[in-house]
Amino acid sequence: MFCRNDLSVESMAIPQRFYDIEVVCVDIKVKGSIYRIIGYYRPPGFSTVDYEYIDNSIRCFQHLCSTHHTVVIMGDFNMPLVDWDLYSSPDTPMYSAFIHFINNYGLHQYVNKPTRDDKILDIVLSSSDSLVNDMQITAPFSINDNN
Predict the structure, then answer these.
(1) pTM of the model
(2) What angle do CA 73, 139, 72 make, to 5 degrees?
């Protein structure tokens, strides 16, 4: 995660029980407000092991979202079948757990164009419905294959 050096940034500890999850978290102070920014990656796949990964990820998010600060969760979730217009998904344990978490926490998803082929894999979720007002999808950064 890159942060401007003129911002007040505090790295948040990830509990050891979540060390197998690819997640990073910082609190950033901007103009008197604090934003909790969570970066995340979920490898592609939908096996039982992959369900355990998303289930543990959701528990990690619940822990990190237990704050009064505005929360932003962003990253490559590799959940290509979510309908972000309706906040719905296939009725499978993995998708259902993911959508249930998003809806229970009242998170808003801001990416509305495909980030890989014709799918939205990279998303930006926020506890604020007005935090993001200009979302643009650009060409991949470095050796990444997602926009």
Answers:
(1) 0.91
(2) 10
